[in-house]
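Problem: given the chain below (512 residues), write out its structure.
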Amino acid sequence: MNFPSLPQRQTAAETLAACLVRLFPGAQIHRAEATQEGFVCDCFLPQPLGQEAVSLIEEHLRRFIKEDHPIKQLEMMRENACQLLQHHGQMALAEALRHHPDKIVPIIQIGDYYASPKNPVQDSTKEAGTIKILSITGGTELTRIFGTTQANPQILKKFLKAYEAHRDHQQLGREMQLFVSLPQFPGEFCWLPKGMIFFEILYDWWKKALQEYGFELISAPSSSALLQAQNPQIFPIYWAQTAKKGELSSSPYGLLEASPRTVDNLQIVCTPDQVSKELISSLQFFDKSLNIFGFESQWNLRGKRVPKAAGTRAQWEQSVRWLVGALEARGYSPSVDEKDATVDGPCLELHIRDALGREWPLAYVCVDLSAKNLPVVLSLSLLHSFERLTALILEQTGGKLPLWLAPEQVRVIPMAVRHGVYASEVAATLAAKGLRVVVDASEEKLGSKVHAAEKERVPYMVILGDKELKEGLISVRVAGEEGLKPIELKSLVEELFAKGSESFNEVKQIES
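Solution.
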């Protein structure tokens, strides 16, 4: 799905902000920004709003758009712009603008509303497109309004159909008892026991994949400094580590934009004549590692040199040629991302497209020109962050995780208290085989127990009653399938190992 242009989305955000200021005198806008699928507006309102206010906001916003207010655009000295925003009552916007890096800043005016937009805007509110408010959340302090804009009603209808079918990872995380967010800790996620197991499984997958490729795990505040101190003479060198990155901030996208986040930092140090081979092998390794999740992906080149970039222009151009050559060797046509590259050097980014058509950078491969006294340093990341990968996996699968990745693989459900001993014996046998199993020994009715397991997306349920106890069998219910199948416990173990080993084999077959 192709989303409207960035100026249209930013126009929709600023139009909503201007409408709120007119609708609620005294409203303070905290931010109004374009998102991938539309816009978001954080504001402080005289009265709290909830989801019930969607129709009211939409009605006034559509009327405001039709009124075709001109959007006046100008540039001002930063200090003068801050004073202007303060004069018109937008203290939060004025305070944020004080930290703008440029002395000359853009200013827009829509009626009595003034702001400094983060992105370019159109000339009129009528160019905000066909809008729809998706959600309103918040309380007495901050209200967040999230919406979309499309070119016409037909495209909006198509988007809304996909949006309604889309399962948000934050909801899935709650239902599966992986993680929750608490209103008193905005931007932070509390990982529950099953979530910690899931995180450990992902980490083990990451570590095994890298070690099989040849990476060695380290822990250092600066791997480049450590390399220089080691003064290596034999190349290539493969190092990997994880670290926490970013300051605490809140995002409507949850784990997709979590900060701080757990990142993986990989480095390959090689000689110039080894670079092409290492880049090609790295792309192949990344593709095969991430293909097990079934993502729709594309490699993008970010090669635009920025002012004060590391390295000489000749080194930069050579690095771009290396990256393009590696893409072509893997059969990809280079897709150029117009965003500036990092100051350290040009890079390739693997963008994952989610069910709504949004793109999220995941893996990257960069030629690091900032490293001194070393031949060539390649900086890489397989998964951007464990948090983003978690979100993408949950939304890709709808929570129906492959068996090897499920934090709870089997739930044993005794129908009554008298079946508890047999349930414990079955669970112990499964656990002894290395399977992750939980016994639901609660006194809830069978239907409630089954519903709870389904909601948490447990792949297998083993249901035990009088018949199973008498015959020494178990009745198995597979997630997504109807009915029970009575089998021997040994048969279930064989089935689980067949499913689990197939998935793990895909990881182990990564070519180095």
